[in-house]
Amino acid sequence: MATTATKLLKQFGVRKLNPGRLILLSADAMLAVMRVPPPNLLPSLVGFPRTSLELLSQLIDLGLVQTAIRLLRELRTSVAPGIGLYEVEDYAVSLTLCDSRGREARLSKIQRVRFLQDNSIAFQDQAWGDGDFLLDYRCAPGKAVDFYQDGFRTRILISLREVKNRGDELVFLSERRIRNGFRGSEEYLQVQIDHVTRIMHLSVIFPKERPPLQVTLVEENAHRSRELPASAVRIRPDGQIEASWTQRNPRLFEGYMLRWTW
Questions:
Q1: Nearest CA among 132, 141, 191 for reference residue 168
Q2: Gyration radius (Cα) of the chain, Å
Q3: Which of 216, 223, 212 is nearest to 254 (CA)?
Q4: How far apart are CA 261 and CA 211, in angstroms?
Q5: Which of 246, 248, 254 is nearest to 94 (CA)?
Q6: Please, are residues 218 and 257 in contact by the beta-carbon 8 Å criterion?
Q7: Other beta carbons less than 10 A from residue 120's beta carbon
Q8: Which residues, listed in sequence order, are joined to residue 171 by a DSSP beta bridge?
Q9: What is the mean pLDDT of the chain?
Q10: HSE-CB of 2 using CA atoms within 13 angstroms
Q11: What is the pTM of this model?
Q12: CB of 201 within 8 A of CB of 158?
């Protein structure tokens, strides 16, 4: 039985029967593998099960069914970063360029999140960029208790000072100053979607002395870019120029940039 099931899993693209390999598969991919074999493999599967139930019956004696169920339940909390703790209902990031030379800037974030687990006591923010990009960091609610490097990013661990349970909502605000971060003629505001997000707003506010010449939205992983329409750039009552973009259901793990020349 073990040999038969091993051959079957190999036909469906699973080469090794170990939890580490199974964890790397997404829940949707695992279910798709169990439901429908690739069309080009159908002629070679004579004698092998064709349905999910038949496939599961082949795996029972190997003790993999219970393991697979457990892994699927844990997948969204331990494998895909950020999915299990909370989801973001609304995410707004705004960058204000305070002078025409890009020497001083402020970046603010507002996130409305809904918790997906009980007993959540912490939140995480992140920052990266050129120059001194993490000056005068402030957040509410909670308190930043640890800053640590993770590749090019600085992760910020925030103690909420209270317990949040499944279904609870929270509006989280953070702000920081950036010095000498936007000195070039071409610059960008970049965000990374690490949690399931319903709607995202990006905006860059330029000083009236130096409006942008062009603003482009870039989707990094998708290798797509498009110039913002004229309607996305407006003059504010104070004379500053704001370029903004709203994206519904931004792709998970995608990087989005507002890139401009000025």
A1: 141
A2: 24
A3: 223
A4: 9
A5: 246
A6: yes
A7: 20
A8: 112
A9: 80
A10: 4
A11: 0.69
A12: no
Is residue 132 within 8 A of residue 183, CB to CB? The reply is: no
Residue pair 4/58 in contact by the 8 Å Cβ criterion: yes
For residue 48, the tally of other CB atoms under 10 A from its CB is 18
Mean pLDDT of 18-42: 38
pLDDT digits (tens, 9 = 90+) for 73-92: 444 334 444 456 999 999 99
pLDDT tens-place string over residues 153-199 = 999 999 999 999 999 999 999 999 999 999 999 999 999 999 999 99
Question: Do residues 28 and 72 touch, judged by C-beta distance below 8 A?
Answer: no
More confident residue, 131 or 9: 131
Is the CB of residue 14 less than 8 Å from the CB of residue 21?
Answer: yes
d(CA 235, CA 254): 29
Q: Which two tokens stand for residue 24?
A: 């790397």
* Positive or negative: CA dihedral 28, 155, 203, 181: negative
Q: Give the C-alpha distances (Å, rounded to integers) separating 26 from 23, 80, 165, 179.
A: 7, 8, 25, 41
